[in-house]
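FYI - complex with hypoxanthine, inputs then prediction.
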Amino acid sequence: MGHIAIIGGTGLTSLNNLEVLRREMVQTPYGVPSGPLIWGSLAGREVVFLARHGYGHTIPPHRVNFRANLWALNHVGAEHIIAVNAVGGIAASMSPARLVVPNQLIDYTWSRQNTFFEDGLRSVVHIDFTEPYCETLRQEIIHSANKADLDLVEQGTYAVTQGPRLETAAEIDRLEQDGCDIVGMTGMPEAALARELELCYASLAVVANWAAGRGSGEITMAEIEQNLVAGMQHVRLLLEQTISNY
Ligand code: HPA
């Protein structure tokens, strides 16, 4: 079986339960990934980790080189990718620090390099994206959470916004009318690029804050960081459980 990769998002630039074996810088036809790939052992299995925003958390969502990141992970033999994403909670059930495994998404991003299929094609390719996430991996994460007695929301629609600013209250109302439950900035084009490479990709979202107009007053970075500290402890446990079951 191919390797399992973890893409860490905001609040997860390292895995403290990962025993690091080596670091590998991969050059790609699309430029450099967000950082070196970190090979390590988690729950006794070899996994590869990449921090989406760089290890110092310096690359904003719209500047992430998603193509280089996905190309690099595919190149080293990753076949399964668990992508961790910090999000805002829109639906009442999506309260801060909760974990969610989305099953759908709506892409509101623009002007990002969003495909591998544009130059030197023998013919035009349109990937099927009816179900944007790998259901096998989603179910594995859900099963592992149940086993570890961790609270997890088993489905939801992820609105992917351009950022880096947070939304207005009216924009969040519109996203809710569109059927979105959570909102973040990094879910796309990552999921589509993974599909183009035929990788089994699922998102594990962590609610960092109530989305604009859903909580009381302004959203602060301090609040986001605080909720992510709590949420990511559960994410680390869940990743360990998922990988040991896999
Ligand atoms: N909106 C968009 N992206 C986010 C949010 C949010 O409220 N919180 C964390 N990432």
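The chain is about 25% helix and 25% strand. The chain has a mean pLDDT of 95.
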